[in-house]
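In response to reviewer comment 3 from the previous cycle, which asked for concrete evidence that the modeling workflow produces usable outputs, we include below a single protein chain processed end to end. The sequence was submitted unchanged, and the resulting structure tokens are shown without manual editing.
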Amino acid sequence: MVESSRKKTVTMMLFSAPFGSQYADHLCRMAERALDKGYAVEIFLYSDAVHAQMTEQNPKLFFPVGEAVKRLIEKGAVIMSCEICSIARGYIKGELRDGKKDYSSTKVINGLNFCSIYGFVDMLNRADRVLSFGGS
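The workflow returned the following structure tokens.
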């Protein structure tokens, strides 16, 4: 039997705002450990969790989620944010430009990408393990 050389993929979903609970803290710490152990990590931000993508966060008394997101991207994590949730909260416009959606924004951490719920389904299909954080 031939073993695949493909990395195992852990897909994580965050549903809660980054500073309303410790869900974002736990997700970031677990994602970093998974990356350090050689896993591929994909993260989907949905609902109020899209606030984790905001640049220039200044959480003096909270876990620095924005800095953790930047570090995860630098280490190779794929972080996708729900485009509809991001548009609704003013992070991106999502307008068509030259036949493609324009997601440029100074409000969003570099390296973070956007997708629809169908992109999230694709993430789930690639996953070997799925972890969910938050909810209401």
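The chain has a mean pLDDT of 92. We consider this sufficient to address the reviewer's concern, and the full set will be provided in the supplementary archive.
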